[in-house]
């Protein structure tokens, strides 16, 4: 879905850090926030892909690319400190990084893979919040958005460890909202299948068939998710915290996942 109307520059003067932003939803979020006037620091593991993503965003004076592994505490601190040093603030944190190296029944799951999922999808998100609080938000306030999933709201049967990690992230969002208010707002968004490389295995064998299960009769796009994130970090959402907002084309309204 596209909109020919350029977004208002309501985020001008603010700085955002978006993790996992070399492609897909993270890159879409970074572009949306940039279009609304924010300065944006993007981070991801692979330097070449991250630099390519930064170049695609344009506006080099407002884009800063810092490669790093979200699962590494030192990399998280470096990303946050680098953002504040480069732009002078950190007003928005979008915890987008997520992995899913486990597929199939949990009873047969590799527990090392399950642990890795929780380490990156949950613990690293909390780690980024801690670093952002230390470096800027604790004294100045801000807004955090965590990238959850409809898999954290309903059982999937095939990506159970991923879904359980996203359910934990949703609870983490609520706890942090209670703890950090009123100056820091913390929300989550829960997408269904979005057309990205990360989710491609879920629709590659028949996109039309998968999309037919959705009342909107299409899969999501990074732009669909980015628009919701942009709203949640803006002043228009100033009385919203602790929420997990579905962006799922109506999928959960059908009673299925």
Description:
The chain is an alpha/beta fold. The chain has a single domain, classed as Rossmann fold (3-Layer(aba) Sandwich). The protein has 7 helices and 7 strands, in the order βαβαβαβαβαβααβ. Helix 1 packs across helix 7. It is globular, with a radius of gyration of 17 Å. It starts with 14 loop residues before the first strand and ends in a 10-residue tail after the last strand. This is SDR family oxidoreductase.
Summarize this structure briefly:
The protein is α/β, with parallel strands linked by helices. It has a single domain, classed as NAD(P)-binding Rossmann-like Domain (Rossmann fold), CATH 3.40.50. It is built from 7 helices and 7 strands; from the N terminus they run βαβαβαβαβαβααβ.
Q: Which features would summarize this protein structure in a list?
A:
NAD(P)-bd_dom_sf; 257 residues; alpha/beta; 7 helices; seven-stranded parallel beta sheet; SDR family oxidoreductase; Sc_DH/Rdtase_CS; Rossmann fold; globular; 14% strand
Largest sheet: 7 strands, parallel
Question: Could you give the distance between the termini?
Answer: 22 Å
**Counting H and I runs of at least 4 residues, what is the number of helices?**
7
Low-pLDDT runs: none
Task: Characterize the quaternary organization of these chains.
Answer: single chain
**Class, according to the CATH hierarchy?**
Alpha Beta
**Average residue pLDDT:** 92
Task: Tell me the CATH architecture.
Answer: 3-Layer(aba) Sandwich
Number of strands: 7
Strand content: 5-15%
Shape: globular
- How many domains make up the 3D coordinates? 1
Whole-number radius of gyration?
17 Å
Fraction of residues in H or I helices: 40-55%
Instruction: Report the order of strands and helices.
Output: EHEHEHEHEHEHHE
What's the CATH H-level superfamily name? NAD(P)-binding Rossmann-like Domain
Identify the strand order in the major beta sheet. 3-2-1-4-5-6-7
CATH fold name: Rossmann fold
> Helix- and strand-based class?
alpha/beta
């Amino acid at each position: 879905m596209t909109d020919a109307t350029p977004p208002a520059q309501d985020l001008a003067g603010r700085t955002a850090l978006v993790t996992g932003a070399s492609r897909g939803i993270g890159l879409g979020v970074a572009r949306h926030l940039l279009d609304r006037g924010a300065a944006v620091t993007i981070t991801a593991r692979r330097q070449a892909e991250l630099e390519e993503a930064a170049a695609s965003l344009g506006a080099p004076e407002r884009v800063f690319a810092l490669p790093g592994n979200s699962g590494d505490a030192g990399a998280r601190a470096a990303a946050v400190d680098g953002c504040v040093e480069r732009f002078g603030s950190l007003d928005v944190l979008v915890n987008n990084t997520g992995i899913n190296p486990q597929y199939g029944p949990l009873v047969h799951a590799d527990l090392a893979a399950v642990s890795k999922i929780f380490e990156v999808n949950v613990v690293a998100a909390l780690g980024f919040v801690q670093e952002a609080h230390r470096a800027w938000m604790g004294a100045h306030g801000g807004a955090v958005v965590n990238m959850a999933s409809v898999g954290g709201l309903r059982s999937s049967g095939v990506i159970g460890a991923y879904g359980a990690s996203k359910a934990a992230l949703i609870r983490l969002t609520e706890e942090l909202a209670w703890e950090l208010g009123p100056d820091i707002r913390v929300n989550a968004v829960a997408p269904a299948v979005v057309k990205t490389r990360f989710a491609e295995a879920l629709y590659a064998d028949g996109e039309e068939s998968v999309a037919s299960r959705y009342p909107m009769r299409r899969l999501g796009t990074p732009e669909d998710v980015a628009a919701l994130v942009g709203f949640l970090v803006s002043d228009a959402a100033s009385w919203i915290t602790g929420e997990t907002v579905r962006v799922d084309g109506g999928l959960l309204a059908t009673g299925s996942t």
